[in-house]
Design brief:
With 174 residues, the protein is mostly helical. The chain is 59% helix and 3% strand. It is built from 7 helices and 2 strands. It has a two-stranded parallel sheet with strand order 1-2. Strand 1, helix 5 and strand 2 form a beta-alpha-beta unit. Helix 5 (88-100) packs parallel to helix 6. It is elongated, with a radius of gyration of 19 Å. The relative contact order is 0.13.
Length: 174
């Protein structure tokens, strides 16, 4: 629920309740949403994070996983390395990274359109389109694995096309 709470704070005030059921199972989500609501109220009262202060939001309601992922995305951006965004948690961390360094968006590739509404809203806030929209809801990084393979194939096709351009004017068949 740290991802949901972080996302809620980074969004405009128009979507405060959108993240309550970001988990898949409605019964579990209801119980967790109630507990998260209590935890969020306590964290907000204690830390008073400002949605414009990403570090404050991460410190107040985020988790170490979100902070680490945010740092990972910032590091990838600094090194100009592609990074796969796979699901709600990584999308919340990616939004933190982009709010801290807008240029980080260029290295982010969402693997798939999340089944959770919160994930869709996070990708919209990031202004990123997913590589796949296949109704994935498996977890365990399945979308990331498929997205990475898709990116590898796209790069290979691009490189091979560039190599074919070098052969311009040559007769390949006949």
């Amino acid at each position: 629920t740290c991802a949901a709470n972080t996302g809620r704070l980074l969004f405009s005030s128009g979507m405060p309740h959108a993240f309550r059921r970001w988990l898949g199972a409605p019964a579990l989500a209801g119980a967790l949403a109630a507990a998260a609501g209590t935890g969020l109220r306590q964290a907000l009262a204690l830390h008073r994070p400002d949605g414009n202060d990403v570090i404050g939001v991460l410190a107040g309601v985020g988790g170490l996983d979100l902070a680490a992922l945010c740092g990972f995305f910032l590091g990838c951006a600094a090194l100009r390395i592609a990074a796969m965004v796979d699901g709600v948690i990584s999308a919340a961390a990616a939004l933190c990274a982009v709010r801290m360094a807008p240029a980080a968006r260029a290295c982010l590739f969402p693997s798939h359109r999340p089944a959770e509404r919160a994930g869709v809203w996070l990708l919209e806030a990031l202004e990123l389109s997913p590589l796949l929209d296949a109704g994935l809801h498996l977890g365990e990084g399945t979308g990331g694995a498929l997205g990475a393979q898709l990116l590898d194939n796209a790069v290979a096709a691009y490189n091979e096309t560039a190599a074919l351009r070098e052969l311009e004017g040559m007769v390949l068949y006949g």
